[in-house]
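Changelog excerpt

This revision adds worked examples to the README so contributors can see how folded entries look when concatenated. The first example is reproduced verbatim below.
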Amino acid sequence: MENSTESIDQRIRSVFAVAGLPRVTAIRGLAGDASNRSYYRCMVDSDMSYIAMVNAAPDKAIVSEEIAAHARGFEEMPFINIQRYLAHLRVRVPAIHYNDREAGILILEDLGDALLGDIINSSGPSDELYQKAIDMMLQFQVREEQVPAWCYARLNRFNSSLYDFEFGHFVEYGIAKVGVVLPNNVLSKLQKLFHRLSVLFERYATVFVHRDYHSRNLLYCTGQLYTIDFQDALIGAPQYDLASLLRDAYVELTDDFVDRMVEYYLSKSPHASAGFRDVFTLLSIQRMLKAAGRFRYIKLVKGNDKFMRYIPGLLRRVKQLSLSYRSDPALEVIAEVIDRIPAG
């Protein structure tokens, strides 16, 4: 199958015709991430617009590489399965107007371009918007036993193996691939710490987790927030999505703001428990290290360097958290390793 702009345009127009949707008058490619999906805004005769999500691989592969490596088989596209479940919970997600499985194209509701991250970076942190995001999170943070068996999140668990994979991704791409050779004793300390944290995090895997719940996957439309990119949902720790939201690669929030939003979450969540804040901090470190390794992987393996500019800020914030977390002095090895990583 060709991937030229012309062939994609033709494929999209053909799907609209088969679906009985209005005639497409213009198609414009949208900036995407480094996934196997590309997105196009499709204008139609009625001055409306839709989003075409074009998959570059068979639908069973349209999940992240690490999820695909750990997942069980999928009978339908995970995006569709999870969208149906979230819509059932009345979580705001884009409507699916048509699925052409053979063409690998989904026609989605167009929610515009107002990403939460862009709003915050332009106008500053907003208690109201982040509280909306947390309220939405609380809607879908259903305990595992209450998630229906047909929902694919029940098939996969954020276990220690997956955390080990993500930590290892940082060791490989965030450290080794930049030419840093750690002394054996330092590498051993780091790997033992990472595995210990992986085992700890697995104990808290009790709820539905979006897994990519951050400011570039939240859209502000008609006064409400909507979430996207939820196809990797699984069962994990309630702190995970909160850490993803508040310790975001794309938006740097002050510690005071983060503390205020954590307190807001705890005031409303049924999942608050002793030690919640400690696990939140440790998962914040894990999330940011994962992102730093992932961004360098995207440059080295996929030839896309647009995320590289976020790495210095991520590592700086991880170092600060690691040194300030007094409950576990072993975290100091993370700061020691970050000091060895060259800037840029």
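The second example, added in the same revision:
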Amino acid sequence: MNKRFLVMLPLLFAVLFATAQNSEVEKMLKSIKAVNSFEKIEKKDTARQYYLMKINQLLDPSNPAAGTFEQRVMLGHRGYDRPVVVVTEGYAGDYAFSNPNYMEELTKIMDANILFVEYRYFSGSTPEPCDWQYLTVLNSMTDYHNIITSFKPFYKAKWASTGISKGGSTSIYFRAHFPEDLDVSVPYVGPLSCAVEDGRHESFLEMVASKAERDVIRGYQTEMFERKERMMPLFDAYCLEKGYIFRVPTSTIYDLLVLEYQFSMWQWGTPVSTIPALDSDDKTLFDYFVKMCGPDYFAAENKIGSFFVQAVKDFGYYGYNIEPFHKYVNAEEIEGYLKRVLLPEEFADVKFDDSTFRFTTDYYTENDPKMLLIYGEVDPWTASGITWLRDRNKENIKVYIQPGGSHRTRILNMPDDMRDEILEQLNEWMQYK
């Protein structure tokens, strides 16, 4: 027999096996009624077959006559006998769909299948026309329920949900609305906000970490207010060069960014040692400022506009403590900034619906699903997290707060003992080994 043929034989078998697997997965996708279309996508992770799908969803689950839209979902198929991780992304999914190196932490830990779901009204999952009345937490949770219901007949192992930030909140909401859909939930750094300006973040930031660190941050903010008159020409030129358009004067945007700076520093765990000396020249302080707090965040057109719509409707957000800076800022220009600065006038009279907050809070007060809640100690979003469940004598709900951790807190960067405890509990519940 030809030696070259013998060398090539294992490769041929591998190709045939992969082709058969692809064919089997595609056969499954074709059989799922909700899947409108799909395409195979390539990732560096060769252990899974990846497909980007468009799922048909009702705009209003309580009223089919309202019409439908297509929601983008990525499947990473590892095996029908492996667990499934549903990533409840809170925003657009482009970064996961297009990045060949994308890998979600829980999927990697459990060597699981992954269903990554882009949130409705973001990027390729935006209805046409875009009727904002259907962007609600409840409607969004029904999207996830429909997807899980469609795939569950094929994947018989354990199911978990996970998400980061707004995706973590989505995982929290989802478990409350459809508790039987999942075996375990692992939300990361997810808030549960009670109002458009929740109110808990301001007091959190007055107590976070050490007084010395807080004083350094406040000193920088004060310096930027003191130098505002000198900074505004630099700021205006920068915004003009970038083409940013705002709904309010740039002087108000400047004030908002100085206030936002404190939140941003703690959210991302940026060391105060990175702050330039306060006697630095204007350009040094300014360059650092726009690097840390980009003005595009408050621009009239931005990539997360759909989030701000939902924030004023039923998701909630945060406000700023202006008391330490009352001599520099006009309270009327700052209070209620979300509607005036980040949203068009059509949302001016929208009233926040706190029923989702109340429903979710009641659910976790009265129930005890298997859940691992991950938070960072200095992350301002922890202020509005559901960490209070630690004190409710829950057997299954477990809260882990990484010492000194920020919004970047993950299982694998936890302290060793905390990480090992989480992994042991996760394996006991999900049975992935």
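Reviewer comment on example two: The chain has a mean pLDDT of 95. Residues 200-347 form one domain.
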